[in-house]
Write a structure and sequence with these properties.
Blueprint (H helix, E strand, L loop, with lengths): L3 E6 L7 H15 L3 E6 L15 E4 L6 H12 L6 H24 L5 E4 L2 H8 L8 E4 L8 H7 L8 E4 L2 H8 L5 E3 L6 H4 L12 E5 L8 H11 L6 E5 L5 H10 L5 E5 L3 H10 L2 E4 L8 H8 L3 E5 L14 E4 L4 H13 L1 H13 L6 H11 L1
Parallel strand pairs: 1-2, 1-4, 2-3, 4-5, 5-6, 6-7, 8-9, 8-11, 9-10, 11-12, 12-13
Helix pairs in contact: 2-3, 3-4, 8-12
């Protein structure tokens, strides 16, 4: 008899790593005979990432609950209160907890397994005696994220059925809280999985970065590296993503007359894949990652990689066969390795070839089989 699975996450309304890999896994499990449903914590919306027609979707609008209305009131009338955004976040998540627990208490008997896709949702479910024994916490970010309150609640992960991490460092941390902890890389979407080796004649002298434009992704550091590097005139850079720092990043580009650098904003999966298929080098300057899906996508698209060695994630992917892992904040070393790749086409071509060959570690069948084992 096919197993019934419920995923819980906030949204599938815009680009985001969690939404993307949730869609990838849900689609594959559905295609493999599992009954898959997803509970989204916002109003009903069109899917940004495609979901199989067999997947049933449920919606709880956490942004129409009384706790969120309090947050709106606070933002409008109480902006003078220190750390108001943090206070509002806890108020909002209190409402989310009430809504989730009410919903799962009513519906949980339909499901063999519940998979929570974010750490604060996992903490809420770990405290729910009706469902914690059949809940898997799917950890998409470093265990260092969350602050004292959520890190305290993570001790209740011992109540969960399983913890799935994306890297060995987080798996080691969570193993102390729950012995049923496993490390499974993220699944790529079918378009990336089907990508074949791309020869040099189909490539451009193009460097890419795909990232949210926020503090954790540290895109400003990348722009500062590029300014010091002074790209050759026949090379260009495309940065894909959106976020709160977009305006300041564009101002920096304009002020420094970096005409060879473009901010492309948010693009869909096909557009991102098209650009990665034309680029030769993919960069990441994140200060924090759970995994780094775009790095693996770039391998499938025959890109050499350069990434900061942030506390978790890139070290699981980047190695001497596919690129360079740079000590975090070391802009000089990052600039040097990027210059080496641009200046030595034979080295770049060698790394691109071995980078593509390295994708064997992230083939769909191997990853999906590990999920089937725990389900």
């Amino acid at each position: 008899m096919a197993k019934s699975i419920l995923f819980i996450y906030y949204q599938n309304i815009k680009a985001g790593g969690v939404s993307k890999v949730l869609a990838n896994l849900a689609n594959e499990l559905s295609a493999n005979g599992y009954t898959v449903e997803i509970l989204f914590l916002m109003r009903e919306h069109a899917d940004f990432y495609h979901l199989d027609h067999r997947i049933k979707k449920h919606y709880i609008n956490s942004f129409d609950y009384w706790t969120f209305r309090i947050c709106n009131f606070n933002r409008k009338h109480l902006r003078f209160i220190p750390k108001l955004s943090n206070i509002n976040n806890y108020i909002y998540l209190y409402g989310v907890s009430r809504l989730i627990n009410r919903w799962v208490n009513h519906h949980h008997k339909k499901y063999d397994t519940i998979i929570s896709c974010w750490y604060n949702l996992s903490c809420m479910l770990a405290l729910n005696k009706n469902v914690n024994h059949k809940t898997i916490a799917w950890e998409h970010t470093s265990h260092e994220v969350g602050g004292k309150f959520w890190n305290y609640l993570r001790k209740y992960y011992r109540n969960l059925k399983q913890i799935v991490c994306l890297n060995s460092k987080d798996a080691s941390f969570f193993a102390d809280k729950n012995q049923n902890t496993i490390n499974i890389p993220n699944l790529m979407d079918p378009g990336i999985e089907a990508q074949r080796w791309i020869p040099e004649e189909y490539k451009e002298n193009l460097i890419t970065m795909v990232a949210r434009l926020d503090a954790d992704k540290n895109v400003m550091a990348f722009l500062q590296i590029l300014r010091e590097l002074q790209l050759p005139s026949n090379w260009s850079v495309k940065i894909i993503g959106d976020g709160p720092e977009k305006t300041s990043l564009q101002m920096y580009i304009d002020q420094n007359k970096m005409h060879d650098v473009q901010l492309l904003g948010q693009l869909d999966s096909d557009e991102v894949r098209n650009i990665l298929s034309r680029s030769k080098i993919n960069c990441l300057t994140s200060l924090r990652e759970g995994f780094g899906v775009v790095l693996v996508e770039s391998l499938f698209c025959s890109n050499a990689l350069i990434a900061y060695d942030c506390p978790s994630g890139p070290a699981e992917i980047v190695n001497e066969n596919n690129g360079f892992l740079i000590p975090i904040h070391d802009k000089i070393q990052f600039e040097k390795k990027l210059t080496d790749l641009i200046s030595h086409p034979i080295l770049l071509e060698k790394l691109r070839r071995s980078a593509y060959e390295d994708t064997i570690r992230f083939q769909k069948d191997k990853i999906l089989e590990r999920w089937k084992e725990i389900l």
